[in-house]
Write the structure tokens for this entry.
Amino acid sequence: MSKKKQRQDNFIKRQRIVIAFCAAFILLCLAGMIYLACFQQKKYSGSTDIYPVYSREQFDTLPPEMRENCVVESFVNPPRGIIFDDSNMPLVSNVRVYPIGVDGMSYNKNYRYFNENEPYLDTLIYDLAVSFYNQFSDRYPEYSVDDYRAKFTRALKDQRYVTIFSEEQVIRENKMVLAKDLAFIKSLPLFSRTIDTAAAVRARYGFSPQQMEAKKLKKLYFADILNEGSSELLVRVHPYGKLAQRILGNMSKGNGIDGNPEFNKVLTGIPGQKKRLYINGISIPLESENPPVNGGAVYTTISTEIQKIVHKELLEKALETKPKWACAVVMETATGDIKAMSNFTRFVDGDDTVYLETRNNAMVAESAEPGSTFKLASLLAYLEQLHGDTTRKYVRGDYTFHVGKRSYSYKDSHSRGLIRDVSVREIIKHSSNIGVALMMRDAFPSYADYARKLDSMFVTIGFSAQIGKLEPVNMHPNTRNFTEQYGYYFGAGFCMQPLQTLVYYNAVANGGKMMQPRFVRSTTLGKETVEYPTVVLKERIASPQTIQIAQEFLRAVVMEKGGTAYSCHDENLPMAGKTGTRDIYDQTLGRYDYSRNAISFCGYFPADNPKYTCIVYLFDVKKRYGSGEAARLFSNIAHQIVYPAKEIDRSEKHLVARRPVRWQTLKAAVQHWKAGIMPDEQADYCITSREDEALFTSYTVSVKDSVPNVIGLSAADAIAEVRKYGHRAQISGKGNVTSQSYSKESNTVTLTLSP
């Protein structure tokens, strides 16, 4: 037999042997699978008939010998959902924070690098302490370099687990450790699991080429000693800071939208459940796992742009007039949608006065005497009772009421004596208490009839408002006390929430239709969407004739000379409404403090075609501040809502959008100024055309490797775009996005903003 033939035969024999072994192995595997499926299925099913079931907390406390042959259940809480504004931009979202610990017990694996020359370890500890101090001194001023050095010494030399920043610390708004901080920590020596390859850096810690050779080290690779938390720790954040903070609410405090029981169910999501079988030294996931359903979305009616305006203007007026508390609310006239709500309460911080959004003054936290804004309610009752008759004349100024055998003398503020033959229009325009009281006593000889008329128009009843209940007004409907009756006619001696006043003013602006305040449009949880349609509280609170007359009189208050808000009139933006002023009742003294005022204005704009209704209320200001201050605040808010947004420049001929602007915002500006040409088709954003400044072109956010380019967008727009592609967003600075970077490891887009 030739050698070639012999080699071929040997190869075939070996090939057959290999095939036989493979076939035998496959048969054994199949037999094992059949055995497991037929005879051991129950053993590996995690059946509670065989194995005890422990929670994760119970399992962690078991001795090692009991951590076998058992099932461990753990519940997984999903990330909390997001609250959006009326343009589906995030108002409340989540950011992951990281508690930081150093596992000194794992460090013993690294000890051989340093135990021969401890001064190098001291140098490393000092450098780490300095790096941590420089990175975190703004958030942790209580920690010095020596404090960090002591922590690292205890961890690395004593080989203990040491907490640098605890969970309780990092969840606080001013102490959050974010993804960018974690990336910084992981770039440091030791925490990066190596040391910078630069020769000088390595030599500083005893790892020069010569030292590496002497220690017989070919490379530096340290064990992982950084603990960044065992589970994802999310913190609620407001991308716009304190904007609308109180109405958006707080889950832990159970207030606002975030803490409302109905919406909390949506935002919480549905917890999941994981089961694992621990057997034969391994952990096997079981099929009974139920994945969590992430927290849903709540879509509000809040307009971020209008909210910015209201927040800024109210805060500036509060800092000027120093009220005890203040609030401002803007409602969309046709729908009842709340577009903005700001609430400020005064706090004294040393020599400074600060205003914080800690209480919902407009709805549930405060009720106060409405003052002369309530004269609209009396006017409506009067007109309904007399079928729109406005021909009767009354007096204003000084007057004495004769009731039975008693006489009551009163006078209007700024009275110049008795003025006769005053029309109803002039009484409202000049806000005469005397005139309104005479009107009511003329139309309603029985005070009880007056009270019933107010109830029939839904002015004084209570109602629900999605995130809170407005209680009925605490007027005494059957009082026979003339002093009480007199005050009730013009808003004194009883309390109501500012939002209640806004609701019936909005009804007048809306042609008589009273809308329920709406804060939330819809919610989505998983595949289920719940819509919250607009709700009509009363189809018509008064006759069309009454509503038309009331609208004319409210317009006169602002737009005609002699009106209490005439100083704010603007022919380009006609407004309508009513001023209000009340003395402050001092509970301690048991009487009114005539040196202090509550000032307010409630109205709507534009007067001829109302789009928005607004109330501003400032409680407990010095006497020198009259209701004119509230009217000016209202006017400032109205003008900024109607006039173009700040990101749009207005030249003599054109509107110029030099950076991407939301389509809806730009369209409103173009319609108002009647300048500029919009694109034929609606897009998310628009920008001025390079070819013609009179033209606007659609702007599309470009995307590369699933990361959107959001440079030029506002913070809210940028966050929304980033989240659309499943990434987290991290913001630094204020204004618009000027640069961005993406970390694939943390799935975070870091956005740098500047004005």
In short: The longest helix spans residues 3-39.
